[in-house]
Design goal:
The complex is a heterodimer. In chain A, strand 4, helix 2 and strand 5 form a beta-alpha-beta unit. Chain A is built from 3 helices and 5 strands; from the N terminus they run βββαβαβα. Chain A has a 5-stranded mixed beta sheet with strand order 3-2-1-4-5, sandwiched between helices. Chain A has one domain: 2-Layer Sandwich (Nucleotidyltransferase, domain 5). Chain A is of the alpha/beta class. By secondary structure, chain B is α+β, with helices and mostly antiparallel strands. In chain B, helix 2 crosses helix 4 and helix 3 crosses helix 4. In chain B, a hairpin with a 6-residue loop joins strand 9 and strand 10. In chain B, the strands form 4 sheets. In chain B, strands 2-4-3 form a 3-stranded mixed beta sheet. Chain B starts with 8 loop residues before the first strand and ends in a 17-residue tail after the last strand. Chain B folds into 3 domains: 90 residues, no CATH class; 39 residues; 41 residues, no CATH class. The chains are: A alpha/beta, B alpha+beta. At the A-B interface, helix 2, strand 5 and helix 3 of A face strand 7 of B. Strand 5 of chain A pairs antiparallel with strand 7 of chain B.
Chain lengths: 107, 212
């Protein structure tokens, strides 16, 4: 299963970006192969429709789960209809390595 | 007089496909004008005929009244029968609906998540795999005035709020979809409540066949 995580930078030590549509980078983690891929968000500075375009990008990558800090009002119905799970992180800020560690932990 | 506006209907599971096409038969049939099955009619058929819920339970899930659910269901069945008999395509689209999935909270890692695939409660957190998962209701769904609502962007549009009132003392209460106003009892004078906002004007009598 592929999981997208919104990131502020392109390293494992980067923090999770709390915004979804305008995050700096997306990390796509594949739980089957254990690989992770960093892709820059082309819509980070878009004037409008950043969230919707980001959703389309992630759908084309066959992502089934998105981890972020916040999802906008236009995004939730789009993700619901495409059956993509949303996970909202709260509290202490976590790094990408922390999240991937939690996801890959099989126990 | 303009017709009553339709309420939003809640869809839990969207359909897996966008439609169906007949095979065999005349090639003219394959390109015939499709029968448009609305999302709400699909959802009504799924709840009622696939999950075998009764109309009362299903209407609660879709957040409409029981008679409205019965009308949606009947219209869906008629369209399905029409498509089968006339060999027409079925396109599932449209309707006055909103999509929703239930939210859960994990006390292990403090994250919130939804589960768009199933209606059953997941027993493990998808992130930290702990089993301290509980069902959670976004605050914006009940009252949008909460300050610490993290889902400020995901408020569900519920449309106009209806009111039940007591005809003798005038006490008002928010109407719950699917619960008849007569079953609500006024706390002051123990009388059944009525639908509407103003005690002076009675409800307009509905005419049959007025809906389109």
């Amino acid at each position: 299963m592929k999981t997208a995580i919104t990131s502020t930078g392109n390293m494992g030590s980067s923090l999770v970006d709390s915004r979804f549509g305008r995050c700096a980078w997306f990390v796509i983690y594949d739980s089957q192969s254990g690989s992770s891929e960093f892709i820059p968000n082309p819509y980070a500075h878009a004037e409008e429709e950043a969230g919707a375009e980001s959703v389309k990008l992630l759908i084309s990558r066959k992502v089934e789960r998105i981890i972020s800090g916040e999802f906008g009002i236009k995004i939730k119905p789009m993700l619901d209809i495409n059956k993509i799970q949303m996970i909202v992180i709260t509290g202490k800020e976590k790094t990408i390595d922390d999240i991937i560690g939690m996801l890959s932990d099989k126990s | 007089m303009s017709p009553r506006t339709r309420k939003l209907r809640k869809i839990v599971n969207p359909p897996p496909v966008k439609g169906f096409r007949p095979y065999g038969g005349d090639s003219a049939l394959k390109n015939s004008e499709p029968v448009y099955l609305l999302y709400e009619e699909y959802e009504a058929l799924r709840l009622c005929d696939y999950d075998m819920l009764n109309h009362n339970q299903a209407s609660g899930l879709m957040e409409v009244s029981r008679p409205t659910f019965t009308r949606i269901c009947a219209s869906g069945r008629q369209k399905m029968a029409k498509a089968l008999v006339e060999g027409r395509q079925i396109a599932i689209e449209g309707g006055k609906v909103f999509f929703d999935s239930d939210w859960f909270h994990c006390s292990g890692c403090g994250s919130y998540f939804n589960d768009p695939h199933k209606e059953v409660v997941p027993d493990r957190c998808p992130l930290c795999k702990s089993n301290s998962v509980e069902s959670w209701e976004p605050a914006g769904k009940r009252n949008s005035g909460d300050g610490d609502n993290i889902f400020s962007g995901t408020n569900i549009p519920t449309g106009r709020k209806d009111i039940c009132y007591c005809p003798s003392c005038g006490e008002k209460r928010e109407h719950q979809p699917g619960v008849p106003c007569r079953s609500e009892i006024c706390s002051q004078c123990n009388q059944p409540m009525q639908r509407g906002g103003m005690p002076e004007t009675g409800r307009q009598k509905r005419t049959r066949g007025g809906r389109k």
